[in-house]
Design goal:
The chain has about 240 residues and is mostly helical. It has helices spanning about 5-10, 20-35, 50-65, 75-105, 110-120, 125-140, 145-160, 165-170, 180-185, 195-205, 220-240. The chain has two domains: about 1-160, TerB-like (Orthogonal Bundle), CATH 1.10.3680; about 160-245, Orthogonal Bundle (Helix Hairpins).
C-alpha cells in the first residue's frame, strides 16, 4: 500500500467501513495487490467524519460513474481524466489514481447507492466540492455529453444540493454561451439591486471559502480555490457591467 500514499495515506474511515463504495474500492485495491479481488486494508480511523482518503476514493467512484454514463468508456475520456488528475494531484497522484480507477471501471456501479452512501457521510460543503469536480471533468474536453450532465444532476439531487447551488456550480462552465452566468454563479436574479448583488457575493464567498474543506487535505483545498475564484470573477463581471464601486 505504500505506493498509494496520496490516496490511502489520508485515512480511510467510512469508505471501507461497508456499503457499495467499500465493496468497489476493496475489490479495486485487492485486484492490484494480491489479485484476489478483495483488499486487506487497515483502516486508519474509526470516525464517521469524512477524511481526505474517504473523499478522494469517493471522487474516483463518482468519476467512474460519469465516464460510464453513456454506456461505455472511451479512450478520449481517459485522456481527459488523466489531465484532470495531473492538474489536481500531480503526476504521482494521477498515476496512483488511474490504477485504482481502471479497476473500479471494470466493476458494475450503482450510482444511486453510491451517492446515497456519500450523502449519508459527507457534509454539505464537501458534497458541493465533489459536484464541482464532476463538472470539471464533464466540461474538460469542451464536449459535454447529455448523459453526463443528467447523471451529475441525479447525483446532486441525491446529495440534496439545492437547485440554486447546482446552477451556481454549472454556470461558470457556460460563461461563453450564457449571458446570465455571473448572476447564476452568485445565486441572484438579474433584477437584483446593487446592494443585493454585494450581499450575494459576500454570502457565496463564505459558502465556498477553501477553509470549508480543510479536512479534505491540501489537494482538495487547492481545487476548492478554483470555485472560490469563479465567485470573484462573477462579481467582478457584474461590477463592471453595473458600474458598482
Amino acid at each position: 500500500m505504500a505506493g498509494f500514499g496520496k490516496w490511502i495515506g489520508g485515512g480511510l474511515g467510512w469508505v471501507l467501513g461497508g456499503g457499495p463504495i467499500g465493496a468497489l474500492i476493496g475489490f479495486a485495491l485487492g485486484s492490484m495487490f494480491d489479485g484476489s479481488g478483495s483488499a486487506s486494508v487497515k483502516q486508519t480511523t474509526q470516525t464517521r467524519r469524512t477524511t481526505e482518503g474517504d473523499f478522494k476514493m469517493s471522487l474516483l467512484v463518482m468519476m467512474a460513474c460519469i465516464m460510464k454514463a453513456d454506456g461505455r468508456v472511451h479512450k478520449a475520456e481517459l485522456s481527459v481524466v488523466k489531465k484532470f488528475l495531473v492538474a489536481n494531484f500531480g503526476e504521482e497522484g494521477a498515476l496512483e489514481a488511474l490504477q485504482i480507477l481502471k479497476n473500479i471501471l471494470e466493476q458494475p456501479i450503482n450510482e444511486t447507492e453510491v451517492a446515497m452512501q456519500i450523502n449519508q457521510h459527507m457534509n454539505y460543503s464537501a458534497k458541493l466540492q465533489l459536484v464541482h469536480l464532476l463538472f470539471d471533468i464533464a466540461f474538460a474536453d469542451g464536449e459535454v455529453h447529455p448523459s453526463e450532465l443528467s447523471m451529475i444532476e441525479r447525483i446532486s439531487s441525491i446529495f440534496r444540493i439545492s437547485t440554486a447551488d447546482f446552477e451556481s456550480l454549472k454556470a461558470p462552465f457556460n460563461k461563453q454561451s450564457d449571458p446570465a452566468w455571473a448572476y447564476k454563479t452568485l445565486e441572484v436574479e438579474p433584477t437584483a439591486s446593487d446592494d443585493e448583488v454585494k450581499k450575494a457575493y459576500r454570502r457565496m464567498a463564505m459558502k465556498y471559502h477553501p477553509d470549508k474543506v480543510n479536512n479534505l487535505g491540501d489537494d482538495m483545498k487547492k481545487s476548492a480555490t478554483e470555485k472560490f475564484r469563479t465567485i470573484n470573477d462573477a462579481y467582478e463581471s457584474l461590477k463592471k457591467t453595473r458600474g458598482i464601486n
